[in-house]
Specification:
Organism: Dorea formicigenerans
CATH class of the largest domain: Alpha Beta
Radius of gyration: 27 Å
Number of strands: 3
Distance between the termini: 82 Å
Protein name: FMN-binding domain protein
InterPro entries: FMN-bd (IPR007329)
GO molecular function: FMN binding
Pfam family, one: FMN_bind
């Protein structure tokens, strides 16, 4: 009887080890699949952004509604790419919100599109800047 218990225990340990090893293999396979899908998504996103951003060079002005009123921006495009975004008017905006919202400008320049996340704590002002940039880009031909 003692031999049976030892053999059964050993068999149970081996089976548990095999199940554990199988789980490790499944996790690795899923991680590899996720990495491949992420690489494919990144490539598709880069191609989409590149094909969408065929702006006409120049300086364009746009307008958007912020927290306290209208926000006007000047967008500079060189070689079909967004090069600079400058706020030219935001008279009725709260200064604190506007300063926080200005962080969205670097996000827009990095992404080359106004379709970025807003700045936390300045949602309406950030949205106003994004909308103003989108308005200017529409005038730029895209």
């Amino acid at each position: 009887m003692k031999n049976f218990i030892i053999r059964a225990s050993s068999l149970a340990v081996i089976v548990l080890m095999l199940f554990g090893y199988n789980e490790v293999l499944n996790v690795r396979a899923k991680d590899e699949q996720i990495a491949k899908l992420q690489a494919s998504l990144d490539e598709d996103t880069a191609n989409t952004v590149q094909s969408q951003n065929s702006y006409t060079d120049g300086t364009y002005e746009g307008e958007g509604a912020g927290f306290g009123g209208s926000i006007d921006v000047k967008v500079t495009i060189e070689d079909g790419q967004l090069k600079n975004i400058e706020i030219i008017s935001a008279e009725n905006e709260d200064g604190t919100y506007l300063e926080t919202a200005k962080g969205v400008i670097s996000k827009i320049l990095d992404a080359q599109t106004p379709e970025v996340d807003v700045m936390s704590g300045a949602t309406f002002s950030s949205t106003g800047i994004k909308d103003a940039v989108a308005d200017a880009l529409q005038k730029a031909g895209n």
